[in-house]
Amino acid sequence: MDSSSLLPQIEALDDSLDDLTEVLSPLLATPFEELNNKLPVLERAKVSVLAVYAIESLLFSYLRLNGVAAKDHPVFQELTRVKQYFEKIKTAETGPLRRENLSLDKAAAGRIIKHALAGNETYDAEKAEKAAREKALAKRKRKRSKTDEGSS
Questions:
Q1: Is the separation of the CB atoms in 63 and 70 below 8 Å?
Q2: Is residue 98 over pLDDT 70?
Q3: What is the mean pLDDT of residues 134-151?
Q4: Is the pTM of this model over 0.90?
Q5: Quick one: angle between helices 41-65 and 74-94, nearest 10?
Q6: What is the pLDDT of residue 133?
Q7: CA-based torsion, 46, 49, 55, 59: positive or negative
């Protein structure tokens, strides 16, 4: 590669670094902890994750520039983990996906369960046994209440 073709790229990089320094100077002038304490919780999380991501990205770039297989390095795994935090923050901002008009139809649920268990002989036998016990108990209570009314 000819050095004359690199000169415009180096000048563009230098200009970009100057712009970045200008934009970041207010942020860099304030201690991170002080800046972070002034922010709401969600913004604090964003700034912290962005700072970690910036550092990890720089490490990743440094490794790549030095010929290290950066995708096999733990820094790449850390970058992936930090990206997951971005998604968590995004979810916290937008809220979970809302499904409107969700309600439980108890009658339908009962029918589904009843039909799902209908072929189960053990369940059917237990259900019939329970119904018979409830009927017998109800009969005894009725008899008892009739005999109590008659003796009063």
A1: yes
A2: no
A3: 83
A4: no
A5: 150
A6: 94
A7: negative
Residues in contact with 56: Cβ distance below 8 Å, sequence separation at least 6, in sequence order: 75, 78, 79, 82
Amino acid of residue 18: D
DSSP label of 85: H
Residue 114 to residues 117, 130, 140, Cα–Cα distance (Å):
5, 15, 29
Phi, psi of 30 (to 5 degrees): -100, 135
Query: Whole-angstrom Cα distance, residue 60 to residue 73?
Result: 9
Tell me the C-alpha distance between 46 and 82, whole Å. Answer: 11
**Rounded to an integer, what distance in angstroms lies between the CA atom of residue 110 and that of residue 28?**
62
Which of 73-77, 90-94, 102-106 shows the lowest mean pLDDT across its residues?
A: 102-106
On the question of pLDDT at 2 being above 80, the answer is no
